[in-house]
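tool_log.txt
---
The assistant was asked to compare two proteins side by side. It first ran the structure predictor on the initial sequence, then on the second. Raw inputs and outputs are pasted verbatim so the downstream comparison step can read them without reformatting.
(1)
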Amino acid sequence: MPIFLQRLVTMTSLFNFPARRGLRDALPVMAGFIPFALVLGAQASSKGFSPMEVPLLTGLNFGGGSEFAAIALWSSPPQLALLVAMTFLINSRHLLMGAVLAPHLRHLPKRQALPALFLMCDESWAMGLADAQAREKPGGFNLRYYLGASIGLYMTWVFFTTLGALLGPMITDLEAFGLQMAFPAVFLVLLRGMWKGFAPSRPWFISLAVAAITYRSVPGAWYVAAGALSGLISAYLFAGSKR
């Protein structure tokens, strides 16, 4: 079979039932992406980014928090070392998220596993794991469900950040309507689906407390790394206490 036909078959196979289910479940999150994507695109436009450059920013670095930080810190000429350091710091949580996801992707060749990890964001990661827990059986993680959700979220983010750059000055302060609560609301719903009782969730609360204290006491985005590392360490210690 010619290579282009093989690729077409592979792409088409993504749209089977699990992928459609993932895309359907991601629709509310995709709607929550829209106002933030429009604002980010408009802010990038005000900093001199063209409508061709914005999708490169949001498509190659699929991490909303680090993109907002990069735009806020952007100057002419840009301070590249500062931008790289801040992007790494804010995206450092993806190292831990990827480590959690890696066992579910270990059986895949790199040409499939790496794109799956590239498309990972907080929401698709949580949705994929919540779906796996809901299935309650070994190997419950459904890659096609995860990819359906991930592709929908990725395309929404890139498209609407580009649209925000095109609309530019027409974009008003959408956060004045309280739309910044969309992401916390989504995470609360996802966490509810992953809730297994207080004892298994102790690392969540420790991570939350450490992140909140760091946010209030240390300038910058150090609270991201502090919350992630404290959650990881506490999860390891609690797991060790059971052995």
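(2)
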Amino acid sequence: MSTSQADVAVLPSPGPNQAYIEVSALEGGMITLPMQFFIKDAAANEVKVCPSLAFSLRHVPSGTHLVFDLGLRRDTSTYPPLVQGIAQKYMPYTVPQSVDESLLKGGIDPKDVSTIIISHLHWDHIGDPGAFVNATFVIAEAGRALLENGYPTNPKSDILQSCVPLERTRFLPVSAFNTTIGPFPRAHDYFGDGSLYLVDAIGHLAGHLNVLARTSAEGSWIYLGSDTAHDKRLLTGEKEVAVIVDPAGHTHCAHANKEDAVEHIRRVRTLLGVPKVDVLLAHDEEWYERNKGGSVFLPGRIPARM
């Protein structure tokens, strides 16, 4: 699908001595995704083995370091029973290297990580917080209600109440998302210097956050879309979001609010093909196959698009 000139996102130009973010990929496990849950009219046997990517974010020039997402946890038994059933029946996964192990391999002790931003509270992004004993966790305020109604308080929930240490969790209020940038009407300028924006990524799950980061002082950007889409073809417009009707007549969608999710996908689509802008989804198997084991993973970094 082509994007008209009017639909192309315009991101702000860099300022003098512009701060930016060095972005490095982190291994977070591999998950099997049945495409019929995500892509309209996908064949029942179409599956993809995808990464659950996390990211190291280093602010330049301050050196402040953050982690975005924690991928999958190795011990399936620590997930809620609903998730254990999903993992066993529909979405088997492996964790050859966890996020904390990826950080160690890249020269960063998990005990030295000060801030972890969680995109949302689904099981393939929360990882295991146990290694990050000194980190403050940052999630959107909308995640609070999900935690309060999570497992084990609600035995049928797929949200694990202990997935973040509440005593070290900062909930970003709705009022923090007071910046408009490019196609996104609600964003939070994390450092206040235009280097890192947390984007209110509506539709997928309450509190879903994406990251828009400058990757150079010359005007380069990367958009980390988390679960905005589970297949790049949804971003390009080649495919549509799936809605499944079960035998009992109940409808199911990978997104809590399909209409909002489709609108957010449309906004992200306007970034595709924009000069100096990269777009990367958490489960982008094609990107992963091109780059696994390479210099885009810590201690290397994803090069700024020039």
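---
observation on (2): The two ends are 24 Å apart (CA to CA). Helices lie at 81-89, 99-105, 123-126, 143-148, 232-236, 258-269, 285-291.
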